[in-house]
């Protein structure tokens, strides 16, 4: 099982910035698409952004132009740069990764423990 460890959450004022990091560790695996999801109180978990191993990205409309996802394949780490934060961005942010032990088998999936992001108005 690949473990994902997140960092970088916290409390920030509206208009501020935060950068989340998520590092994957394990034995003999290849990372596929990695992404960030978030879950606000009383709401369902939603996709924020994904990035493939080839660095192609997909960002949900509500954060386009404000959030950037990127990864460092050498470090098995994915980042989420969040700028111009709004109170509605307040949520627990979860890292997600698909990974392979063999190209002949379907990918497995791991989730991070979540990191709280709170944006005050």
Average pLDDT, all residues: 96
Quote the beta fraction. over 45%
Q: Quick one: biggest sheet?
A: 7 strands, mixed
Structural class: mainly beta
Helicity range of the residues? under 10%
Order of helices and strands: EEEEEEEEEEE
Shape type: elongated
The radius of gyration is: 14 Å
Low-confidence stretches: none
Tally of helical segments = 0
Write down how many β-strands occur, each being a DSSP E stretch of 2 or more residues: 11
Intertermini distance: 39 Å
Please provide a written account of the structure:
The chain is mainly β and 121 residues long. 0% of the residues lie in helices and 56% in strands. It has strands spanning 3-7, 10-13, 18-25, 30-39, 46-51, 57-59, 67-72, 77-82, 91-100, 108-111, 115-120. The strands form 2 sheets. Strands 2, 4, 5, 6, 9, 10 and 11 form a 7-stranded mixed sheet that branches. Strands 1-3-8-7 form a 4-stranded antiparallel sheet, with no helix packed on it. The chain starts with a strand and ends with a strand.
Task: Outline the fold blueprint.
Layout: E1 3-7, E2 10-13, E3 18-25, E4 30-39, E5 46-51, E6 57-59, E7 67-72, E8 77-82, E9 91-100, E10 108-111, E11 115-120
Parallel strand pairs: 2-11
Antiparallel strand pairs: 1-3, 3-8, 4-5, 4-9, 5-6, 7-8, 9-10, 9-11
Characteristic key phrases:
121 residues, mainly beta, seven-stranded mixed β-sheet, four-stranded antiparallel β-sheet, 11 strands, elongated
Short account of what is shown:
This protein is mostly beta strands and 121 residues long. It has strands at residues 3-7, 10-13, 18-25, 30-39, 46-51, 57-59, 67-72, 77-82, 91-100, 108-111, 115-120.
